[in-house]
Amino acid sequence: MSLSNADLTALQPVLDATASAIANAKTLRTAAPVVWLSADFRSVLAGTGINFRQAGDVAACLVHNVLEQCGPEGSVVVSAFNFDFPRSRCFDVASAPVQTGAFGQQLLSQFAHCRTAHPFYSLLVFGKAQPQLVQVPTSSPLLRHSTGPGSVFEWLINANTELITVGHHYVKSLTAVHHAEHVAGVPFRYTKQFQGVVRRAAGLADVALPTSTEPSGSNDGLAPQQQTQHFIPQTAAQEAHQRPADEPIDCEFYVRELGVCDFSSLTERGDAAFRHANLLQVLPVTATRRPLLVHSINHAPAHAMMVADLQSPTPAYTDYFGPTKPNVDVITGERADALYHAELRALVG
User: What is the model's pTM?
Assistant: First the structure.
């Protein structure tokens, strides 16, 4: 299944906005781009009018377009987080559901071999960085640490990763705030070890996101039509025979101090500071059935600002709330949605 010319036309304004965000980000860096891509699929499908049955093709098309904009040396990562490991003690790369949105789940169903084996913060990785992040043993710090030194978040920040979000407030994807908390050593979280096994995907190594596609028919001026690849069905016996043996892993997670911290995140003061420092791009997409916003922010300077603030006597950019500490201006998921829609109304009416 692939997107029709009409669907591609409807999606094109979104593709153009992400391309603009990447072009702007490229002017600020010398290395090949790494992009963390996130999308609210309800906003994207409602905005473009594309049928939900095409969600998988839309997800693949978005990644393919961003990867092309990054160039042959670039990479795209998408969150595929799952937090069941403390209970299950087994992280199955191919089948553990994505708990951070439909975008990642749609991609997982097509490209499970691109998923990292981290028991908590797994990512789908496309492009140049895929071998470096996906094909690592369970002894690697990239899998043993969730945040802090040696973790994938340290790798992403060192790579000056650009966070690009489509259809939702960027704070909902700024998981790196917990990495900043870890680096700064906040008093309301601590590291906890979890032991279990990683179960890697079987028979998927030869399936990859296309790096180029041929345009169809009269597709002038549009992104190439996405040709989604599918896995070859296997019998249960074949899959069991090909599946690698479970790998033991000892993984740490920066957990909340129960009874102290219910939730922590960026604050509205932190959001304002990012904007004042010109770290944030906001790109309205108006040539769609319903308007939406694309946000773009670089992890490296945002991380530096958060750590410096957390190490100050009176942190303001990130904060927490809990049983004995009321929420002042921590941006929760609900508050992020309200801020996103307020900004959308302010920019496009």
Answer: 0.88
